[in-house]
Amino acid sequence: MIHIDRYFERIRYRGPREPSLETLRGLHRAHLFAVPFENLDIHLGRRIVLDESRLFEKLVTQRRGGFCYEQNGLFAAVLGALGFEVTLLEARVGRGDGTFGIPFDHLTLMVQLDDRWLVDVGFGDSFLEPLRLDDPGDQTRDEGVFRVAYDGARGVYARHAEGEWRDQYEFYLAPRLLVDFAGGCHYHQTSPLTTFTQRRVCSLATPEGRVTLSDLKLITTRNGQRDERTLPDEAAFQAALRTYFDIDLP
Asked: Based on the domain organization, do 134 and 224 belong to the same domain?
């Protein structure tokens, strides 16, 4: 069950509610500023199940974060409850060698308004507001320059960084259900080959940049200036979770 008022309180959103581009942009930005991208349950041995009620309980009631399946799974449910036409899309994350990951490696979203929009609140450091799906040119934002290109069935989302274009993920326009991503979700919780099992991460966009905990490394970016320091111990890690992300793990 999706309680819209409680979700709005969670992300501190007080804007319009009708299914419009203004609402979509406002919700997208507010969600990214309020709900951290994190994989802490994996390292606590807690199974992540793709059920809308359980996602709401964790991300809204418990005020936690999650990874792509959780974040975009909940966001799709919220958008649907508000009357948006939203489609879950299978995506596969780009690798350094130019290949892409496993099927159902990532969950992203498409929203149909007057135009189609690529919507994603579950990819960590990414675009803060939706990207036009049918605009193959550069889409320039304060946080970066992005491109979306597709051939009618398959698309690629790319970002310009350090002087070159880097494919972030490929996606497929065939509509999917949340249950279709169960295999990918299980893989990323259990495989020693995925970064989600290799290290803990908790990361949140801020108006000035971003703050990230990667195991005992605390990384903050403010107005383009990056600062990185190593925390001394687990107690400091837990304190940083409370200070920067309002997470107090039981």
From this structure: no
What is the average pLDDT value for the chain, to the nearest integer?
A: 97
pLDDT 10s digits, 205-248: 999 999 999 999 999 999 989 999 999 999 999 999 999 999 99
- What separation, in Å, do the N-terminal and C-terminal C-alpha atoms of the chain show? 25
Mind listing the pLDDT tens digit for each residue in 15-65? 999 999 999 999 999 999 999 999 999 999 999 999 999 999 999 999 999
70: which 2 tokens? 């959780």
- Global pTM value: 0.97
Task: Map tokens 């005992």 to a residue.
Answer: 216
Domain encompassing residue 50? 4-196
- Work out the average pLDDT over 57-82: 98
Distance CA 52, CA 127 (A): 24
Give the list of residues 6+ apart from residue 3 with CB closer than 8 angstroms, or none.
56, 60
> How far apart, in whole angstroms, are the C-alpha atoms of residue 117 and residue 21?
9
We report the CATH number of the domain holding residue 95 as: 3.30.2140.20
Number of domains in the chain: 2
What does each C-alpha distance from 244 to 148, 174, 211, 241 come to in angstroms? 32, 38, 8, 6
Domain co-membership, 138 together with 215: no
Q: Is residue 250 part of a domain?
A: no
Identify whether residues 174 and 186 lie together within a single domain.
yes
Catalytic residues: 68, 106, 120
Instruction: Name the 3-class secondary structure at 26.
Output: helix
Question: In 10 A of CB 159, how many CB atoms?
Answer: 18
